[in-house]
Amino acid sequence: MSPPLSIPDFPFSIEATDGVARAGTLLTPRGPVSTPCFMPVGTKGTVKAMPPDRLEKLGARILLANTYHLALRPGSETVAALGGLHRFMGWEGPLLTDSGGFQVFSLKDTAAVDDEGVTFRSIYDGSRHEFSPERAMEEQRRLGADIIMCLDECPPAGAPREEVARAVERTSRWARRCREAAERAGGAGTDGPQMLLGIVQGGVHEDLRRESAESLLDIRFPGYAIGGLSVGEDRERTLEVTASTAALLPGDRVRYFMGIGDPVGLLEVIGRGIDLFDCVLPTRIARMGTAFTPQGRLNLRNAVHARSREPLDATCDCTACTRFTRGALRHFILQKEILGMQLLTEHNLSFLLRLVRGARRAIVAGEFAEYMRERLEESA
Q1: Cα–Cα separations (whole angstroms), residue 266 to 39, 251, 271
Q2: Less packed terminus of the chain by CB within 10 Å, N or C?
């Protein structure tokens, strides 16, 4: 038996499986998280257009915030001075912060990467910032999230194999430095213990994914994330690599797929053994006037909805669906009324959270394949 981890290890248990799909519970100091679980994204400390009490009523159990953005505005020291990220966000449940590693990918045209870390130009004022593994840990320590992430390098889709291999090696070296930094901090942030997750990279190359996973398993983490698979790859290949990578990870550790938020994609990765996932998609498309429905995406900007008295989704009990017509919602969106953005954001998050809760019930009942088939048939 392996010796106990020297960094916080929140208990994770599996209650049921159906194939490789899992229904589990992650016990954090701020309450349990039932899995599979979708995490709404509050990039800059807020889920856009959604107050925290409403998120709680929708069934959200854990939120995600972005270390890069919060480190620059208002600064992690300011967040700490204001009582930490939970107080700052008005959220009493668990929080996860990413490390800033995704900006290695998204800001690649203005970022420089070497073995020491990443040098960014601020998107706010152009100032120069260096993110080493140690700084990524310190920023997250000051923010005080419950679950924190190692700094990793995420190469773009289609990157040459040699570039992906270098990113795997660098990600592994950075992961060891992140763990050492977390140990020096006593595994605690400004607001309590912090569980650190390692991130598996490797693009669509299964041998590089195996190399990355084995390296992280050697370092030992309380849980593992699958990164670099929602940055433009072919969906079928993404799912194949997700399945093979998940199979490399310990069955008693939580698994997190970074950056997927479309309904079909969520069901697909749940069916491949993933427990946690996040994405800005549901909130972003809501602000553009697009809603998730059982029949697929519905664009309220289309003129056909101008005088529609139908609800957005007759099966949904969110505010948008129970109190407003499609025609009214369309008007709010076209006039850029804040209420319209709020209503569609609430609806899209409600849709995904309800979808994932249904997936959990189906796994427990041994009916996940049927549940997924029915949802796919509805949206076809």
Answers
A1: 11, 19, 9
A2: N
Q: How many domains does the chain have?
A: 2
Catalytic site includes residue 278: yes
- The predicted pLDDT at position 120 comes to 83
Structural domain includes residue 7: no
**Which domain range does residue 325 map to?**
286-379
Is residue 98 among the annotated active site residues? yes
Q: Which of 98, 146, 152, 191 is flagged as catalytic?
A: 98
pLDDT of residue 109: 78
Alpha helices of 108-205 — where are they, by DSSP H? Answer: 133-143, 161-184
What integer pLDDT is reported at residue 108 of this predicted model? 74
Segments in the chain below pLDDT 50: none
Query: What is residue 41's DSSP assignment?
Result: B
Q: Are residues 294 and 242 in the same domain?
A: no
**pLDDT given at position 273:** 98
Final residue in a domain of this structure, among 230, 262, 279? 279
CA angle, 349 as apex, 46 and 42 as ends, to 5°?
15
Active-site option among 18, 191, 275, 278 = 278
